Fold alcohol dehydrogenase.
Amino acid sequence: MAPQFQIPKVQKAAIVETTDAPLKVVDNHPVKQPHELAPGECLVELDCSGVCHTDLHARQGDWPLQAKLPLIGGHEGVGRIVAIGEHTQNSPVKIGDRVGIKWLAYSCLDCEPCRKGLEQSCLNGKYSGFTVDGTFSQYVVSWVTHVTPIPDGIASAEAASILCAGITVYRAIKYSKTHIGDWIVLPGAGGGLGHLAVQYAVAMGLRVVAVDTGAEKKELCMKLGAEKWIDFKETKDLVKDIIEATDGYGAHAAVVTAANGAAYAQAIDYLRMGGTLMVVGLPARASLSADIFFTVTKSITIVGSYVGNRQDAREALEIAARGKVKCYYQLKPLSALAETYEGLAQGKIVGRVVLNMKE
C-alpha cells in the first residue's frame, strides 16, 4: 500500500517577481493539490535544493533567453514523491520514492533532438526554474517520466548538486575524446561545477590541471586530485604555464566551466594537436573567440555541451553514490538565497550552496 502524506495548502517559496525587484521569500505560496495534478504529473516534497549560476542568470534576466516571470527558481531539488496525478499510466516511479528535480523538467521524446539522444535540447522542452517553477520552494510539480531516481549511498544534499553541476561536467568530460592518462584543463576548477569536474576527471583516469584563483580554491582542487594548479591572477603567461604543465605539448582537452568569456579566449593556444574544447560555462553575453588558422592546423574540435540527458543523470549519480565524487557544499536556509546570489556574482562561493527546505 502506498504511503499517505499530509499535504499543506501553502508553502514557503522564494519568488522573483521582476528582475529589478528584491527577491521575495513568502510562506503562503499555494501548493498544488493531488486532485489538481494532470495525468503524468507528480508532486514532490523537497528536502533541499542546490543553487546554480544559472539561477542567478534567471534572476537577473541577463541571458539572451528570458525566464518566465514571476518565477520560482531552482533546478537541483531532492525530495520524495507525495502524490501522482490520477489516471497516470505505467509510471516509472511511485509515491514515497526519493527523486531529483533537474534542469530538464520535461522533454517530448519525439522531436529529432530527443530521438537522437539530445533531449536536453528538446524542441518542446520545459526547464525547471526557468520556463516552469522550480525548486526554491517546499513542494514542486514535475513529470513522472523526468524525475530522476536517487540511488542509495548518496545524501540528498550531495545529490542535489549532482543533478545539474555534476551531470553537466560529467557529460562534457564523457564526450571530450579523452583517454586514461590524458591531460585535461579545467578553468573554474574551484567553483560549483569545477570541483565536481576535477573529481569526475580523476575517476575517469585523467590528469587534471586546475585553473582558478585563491588559496582556498587551490587547497580544494589539490585535495580532490588535481595534479597541477595555476592561479590565473598570479600567472604572467597562462598559456605557457599550461603547456609546461602538460609535458610541453599542451592539454588533450579543456572543459571550461567558468562563466566568463575570457576563460575561452586562450584555450585554442594551450590545447595540443587534436585537442578538444568543451564549451560549458554560460556567460551572460559573450562571444567565443577562436583563432581560425590554429583551430584548423591543430585539428582542434570545439563542442558545445549542454547539461545532460536522463541517462547521463543516472550515470553521474551512480558514480557519486559509489563514493568517487563528493560535493563540497554549505547548507543554508532558503532565506539565505539572496546573499548566495551575491556570492555567486562576486565569484566568492567555494564548492556549492545547498538550501535546506525543511527549515
Summary: The first strand starts at residue 10 and ends at 15.
